[in-house]
Design brief:
The chain is of the alpha/beta class and 444 residues long. The chain has 13 helices and 22 strands. Strand 3, helix 2 and strand 4 form a beta-alpha-beta unit. It is globular.
């Protein structure tokens, strides 16, 4: 099996990106090498996401594309992994003979055995929840990620059971990794040259690990990572308002490396809708978190997720959401029309009129996009700190991000990659800041 090529196409969230990298680390033990050529792989993995609309059909469409790529070639071992695999495993095996292996998110530690034991005529399925064994396996394998910015999973699964969300059924119950294992992996990433670590979890701020009667929370991880001199920045995602505890809020005062950007999904600005969604928090609770953090640091900005057109949403509910967006001025946010996920409570509810939902989404996105434009415009002619991630070959420019995770493109030397540099912002658009390297002034 030496020097066989493997290609992984990753859909969806940052956790899938982290998982794909760890799968690469695992299969390299079998002699598989990463290829970027989709049409020349011995093994082709689709790491799927079940959050977005028509996720299942998109997977079948992708399989059809793979079939065309390999029509006149030797068929690759086709693996469907991730949350769609978890949710639709039995149907997929029956519906699509081209699939060789179905691999759920909690079974990635079995990928090597499944590949070794693979027989073309035998379909293999691994979708049992086995989070402890999974992380125990990967803890023994070096994380080879050497990008400037890297993800690090600290927690998986969800116990919240929001009525619209499929995560509890595809990722299982909440599980927090051992504190020391996370730190060891972080140390390895820093040795690899990583300068920014984003802590990941479906409910990342619900992280809780107890050892020798001591509970470790995400605040302990942030404060520990803060001590690594080679590390420049710390972020975390995705968090839940119910788990925004005092000790985590305090980190925005005590930590030197935690970025002043809080992605905290509220989903709706209406308490009625939050109750229908089973979110277990209120708008008032959310606003108190916002006000406390702004008091700690007025530079802090908020980002959120919004579901528009959820069953039962009235015009008043919609306007409540719009008013909240106007009040907090969210930046870098995500908004979607509600789409039912099979097996969730909301999938049985009566849908709102599609055209009405589209009209509301357009208004919400117009406001969110304007917030982003205004924020970027306010940074023009100022000096911002940018962590340089790479060079944009076609433009012969450098790419990095500011503290609010917004892309920054500017002229500079490749020697700046991996460093935090000062950039004078000259102009901007909705998504990106453009500028020039400035060595004289202090960053804003």
């Amino acid at each position: 099996m030496l020097n066989r090529k493997i290609f992984i196409k990753t859909f969806g969230c940052q956790m899938n990106e982290y998982d794909s990298n760890r799968i690469y680390d695992s299969v390299s033990k079998l002699g598989f090498v990463k290829t970027t050529n989709q049409s020349n792989a011995d093994c082709y993995i689709l790491n799927t996401c079940h959050i977005r609309d028509k996720a299942k059909e998109k997977v079948y469409h992708e399989i059809g594309r793979v079939k065309k790529l390999y029509r006149d070639k030797k068929k690759p071992i086709l693996v469907v992994a991730g949350c769609v695999a978890q949710a639709e495993n039995e149907e997929m095996i029956k519906r699509e003979p081209y699939i060789d292996i179905i691999l759920g998110p909690q079974s990635y530690h079995k990928v090597n055995d499944l590949l070794k034991n693979h027989i073309v005529s035998l379909k293999q399925e691994e979708t049992e929840f086995d989070t402890i064994s999974k992380f125990g396996y990967f803890d023994k394998i070096k994380n080879n990620n050497d990008k400037i910015s890297a993800f690090l999973t600290i927690q998986e699964g969800c116990d919240k059971f929001c009525h619209f969300c499929v995560v509890p059924y595809t990722r299982g119950p909440e599980y927090s990794r051992p504190f020391n294992k996370i730190i060891l992996e972080a140390e390895q990433l820093i040795k690899n040259g990583v300068k920014e670590i984003t802590l990941l979890g479906q409910n990342v701020n619900a992280y809780s690990y107890t050892e020798n009667s001591k509970e470790y929370r995400i605040s302990h991880l942030i404060n520990h990572l803060d001590q690594f001199s080679e590390l420049e920045r710390i972020r975390y995602t995705t968090s839940h308002p119910r788990d925004m505890t005092d000790d985590l809020i305090e980190c925005y005062s005590s930590s030197h490396k935690l970025m002043p950007f809080v992605h905290l999904p509220i989903q709706s600005g209406s308490n009625k809708m939050l109750e229908l969604m089973n979110r277990k928090h209120t708008v008032d609770h959310y606003l108190k978190i916002y006000e406390r953090l702004k008091k700690i640091n007025k530079e802090i900005e908020f980002s959120s997720d919004f579901i528009i057109g959820y069953p039962g949403e009235t015009q008043q509910d919609f306007e409540d959401t719009l008013n909240l967006i106007k009040k907090i001025k969210f930046i870098n946010s995500f908004s979607f029309i509600f789409s039912p996920r099979p097996g969730t409570k909301a999938s049985t509810l009566d849908m709102l009129d599609k055209n009405l939902a589209k009209e509301r989404l357009t208004l919400i996105q117009e406001k969110l996009f304007n917030n982003q434009k205004e924020k970027n415009k306010s940074l023009e002619n100022s000096i911002v700190d940018v962590l340089v991630e790479n060079k944009i070959e076609k433009q012969n420019k450098l790419f990095g991000r500011n503290k609010y995770i917004s892309p920054v493109i500017f002229n500079g030397s490749e020697s700046n990659i991996g460093k935090v540099v000062k950039v004078k912002v000259q102009n901007s658009n909705q998504n990106t800041l453009f500028g020039v390297l400035d060595k004289k002034k202090k960053a804003a």
